[in-house]
Each structure stands twice: as structure tokens, then as C-alpha cells.
Amino acid sequence: MTAQAGSPVATISVTSKNEPWGEIVLRLFPDVAPNHVKNFVDLAKKGFYNGTTFHRVIPGFMIQGGDPNSKNPDRASHGMGGPGHNVKAEFNSKPHKRGTLSMARANDPDSAGSQFFICVNDANFLDWQYTVFGEVQSGLDVVDKVVGSKRDGRDNPLERVEMTVTITE
Q1: Which residues on neighbouring strands pair with residue 161, listed in sequence order?
Q2: What residues have CB less than 8 Å from 69, skipping those under 6 apart?
Q3: What φ, ψ does residue 140 adopt, rounded to 5°?
Q4: Residue 75 belongs to what domain range?
Q5: 83, 99, 101, 141: which one has the fewest Cβ atoms less than 10 Å from its Cβ?
């Protein structure tokens, strides 16, 4: 797969214990989710995601990150933070399949902010419920390594799995 002209590409560099795990390269979909792509790109360019973790990993399902609270080593508040604003849902026909990038949210469909997830398997039960805004171009091996992390009862990896996100347009 190659990026479409004009489609931004996000690269998530993943580390744990200061050891590089590799990169997840994501092609973003501004054609179907322009506000989600803009939000993600804007946050990434500000360095918002740098030093956050994949704070929720569920084998056979997905890896989730993007919570600013995860910068704090106290894991009690991981999964509850955001950027201080919400993005209105942009449900679209892109399926939730292995490698799909989608926006996490609370019960309110319009409550997405900064947290996102990458599907490690097909999850069509999420279609038309969550906003798909990109897909993995390369680095599914890194996604699989992240989802294989030993985790606590809240599916939070026991060792910090941190990210740095860069954007190329």
C-alpha cells in the first residue's frame, strides 16, 4: 500500500525501557474522516502523543493509546485523559479489520478526543460505531509485539510501552 497524494502519514515510534521496538506507519484517511485526521495530525505536530503509552492492550482485539494521563507512571488514571476537546463522530464505510486505526471514545459517539486504537484482528462489530481514520501501512509486527505485552487486570502493560508520533505530508 502506498499513501495517496495529499494524505498525511503518521509514524509511531515505539519503545519500552528505552529500547526501540520499531515503527508503525499509518496512512490517514482525510477523505472519510477529515476532522479526526486534522485533530490527530494537529496533536501529533504539537508533541501531544510523545511520551504517552499504549495503556490498553487486548490480545485478539486491539491496542489503545493517546491518553496524556499515561505520561504519569501512576497507572490509576490511565485511560481517562484527553486533550480538553471532543471531535464529532465521522462514522464511515471503512471496516474495522486487522490494521485499522480508529478513534476511541466514551459512550457518547461525539466524545472522541486523543485516544485511538489499532485493531489486531478484524472487529466488524465496531463498524459504524467508531470512526475509522487510517490504517497500518507497515509495522503490524510492532503492533503484534505491543499486544503481546504482559499486562495487569486493566489490560495495561506492566512495562511502559511508549510512543513518539511524527507526521509527514
Answers
A1: 16
A2: 77, 78, 79, 80, 81
A3: -60, -25
A4: 28-159
A5: 141
Decide if 119 contacts 14 (C-beta within 8 A): no
Cα-Cα-Cα-Cα dihedral sign, residues 66, 113, 99, 129: positive
Q: Which residue, chain included where needed, has cell 466488524?
A: 124
CATH number of the domain bearing residue 124: 2.40.100.10
Q: Would you say residue 73 lies in a domain?
A: yes
pTM of the model: 0.95
Provide the number of structural domains found in the chain: 1
From residue 133, alpha-carbon distances to 29, 36, 48, 61, 70 in Å are 5, 7, 18, 17, 22
Identify whether 4 is part of a domain. no
Instruction: Assess whether pLDDT exceeds 90 at residue 80.
Output: yes
> Pairing between strand 132-138 and 54-58?
unpaired
* Residue 115 covered by a domain: yes
- Is the pLDDT at 1 greater than 60, yes or no? no
| Beta strands at 9-16 and 19-28: parallel, antiparallel or unpaired | antiparallel
What is the per-residue pLDDT across 89-143, written as a single tens digit (0 to 9) for each? 999 999 999 999 999 999 999 999 999 999 999 999 999 999 999 999 999 999 9
